[in-house]
Design goal:
This protein has 326 residues and is α/β, with parallel strands linked by helices. The chain has helices at residues 14-24, 30-38, 46-55, 57-61, 130-144, 161-170, 188-211, 224-232, 244-249, 270-273, 280-299; strands at 85-92, 98-99, 105-106, 108-114, 120-125, 149-152, 175-178, 306-314, 317-323. Strand 2 and strand 3 (105-106) form a beta hairpin. It is globular.
Length: 326
């Protein structure tokens, strides 16, 4: 797929470019990696991506489970917009508890998914109790707004007076839907994303432990930010080649400047970025920043260095690059 922002990737940068894209999608399948690359470069072939994914040491350490045969098509759930239906489920990590930054052991992971955009939020907590579920939902829904339909399974951590009161007091018109007992297919959409979350966490853990210093402990809670970024920043089928992040925020999760690996160490000024910018809107924004820096230096007033996020990815995170007008 050709894109008007894509660049030609030099032969010596091909490996690093595929590696960046593969990390940014959480070591997902070759289709997701190729779709990510097509948004950046147009001369990297599918055969090159297939060879890279086949030889990736992290992907080779995790086995892909075989898909089970379905019992036939079910009734499709349809949504028309963001927050029409929010689905929630829990992933059990009690066999692998992990200490977070404040010293609290986390044993459960709550996966919250918007059904229309496929956007995912991940919230770890220590116990499978309604008060923790209600506290996390209250914070999230006051940030993004309350959904029209709140869809869960019939677990007591969801179907209880505390969660019911929280939702109904904020929005009396909200519809609460729960699946049938021991019927995961009623939660099929969020159950599928649960599988992806666990796979991406496993691969991000391997990557983080390989790159960490000897003696450093890395748990599944530590890689949740990278996991969230990888899932929301990658394209899957039936999404119209649009990431969940772009569905929600109308922009890419990375700053839209794609800089070849060999050129990254040379960029220390806005002028050096000009030749990599093909977007007229972005070019205008950089011009405003440059004008502000020049005016501040001319008046003798100190200015704060401007962080420019380039497409420099380390463990699926963008690296801020502080630049000046010089």
């Amino acid at each position: 797929m050709r894109h008007w922002k894509t660049l030609v990737c030099a032969a010596e940068d091909c490996f690093d470019s595929i590696l960046d894209a593969h990390r940014s999608v959480g070591h997902r399948r070759k289709e997701a990696t190729k779709t990510k690359i097509d948004l950046l470069y147009y001369n990297i072939t599918q055969e090159q991506v297939n060879m890279f994914v086949k030889l990736c040491p992290i992907c080779n350490q995790t086995k892909e489970s075989k898909r089970k045969k379905s019992n036939g098509p079910g009734i499709a759930i349809k949504s028309a917009g963001f927050r029409d239906r929010i689905q929630v489920d829990l992933v059990d990590y009690s066999s692998d508890p992990c200490m977070c930054h404040n010293g609290v052991s986390r044993r459960w992971l709550m996966v919250i998914k918007d059904h229309f955009t496929k956007y995912v939020w991940l919230r770890p907590f220590q116990k499978k109790e309604a008060r923790y579920v209600a506290a996390e939902l209250q914070i999230l829904f006051h940030e993004i707004g309350f959904p029209l339909v709140f869809h869960t399974d019939n677990g007591t951590e969801f179907i209880n007076e505390m969660v019911y009161t929280l939702l109904k007091e904020a929005d009396p018109g909200i519809l609460l839907v729960s699946g049938a007992s021991r019927t995961p297919r009623h939660q099929g959409s969020v159950e599928n994303i649960n599988k992806w979350v666990k796979k991406v966490i496993q691969k991000e853990l391997i990557s983080a432990r390989l790159s960490s210093r000897p003696g450093t402990k890395v748990g599944w809670v530590d890689v949740l930010p990278q996991t969230t970024s990888a899932i929301n920043g990658s394209v899957t089928y039936r999404q119209g080649l649009i990431t969940p992040y772009r569905h929600v925020y109308s922009q890419d999760i990375e700053f839209p400047i794609s800089v070849p690996v060999s050129e990254r160490s040379k960029i220390r000024s806005i002028e050096a970025l000009d030749r990599f910018v093909n977007d007229p809107v972005l070019s205008k924004r950089l011009g405003i920043i440059k004008k502000h820096i020049i005016e501040s230096e001319a008046s003798g007033q100190p200015h704060i260095p401007v962080p420019i996020l380039t497409h420099t990815i380390d463990n699926s995170c963008c690296t801020p690059l502080y630049i000046s007008s010089q």
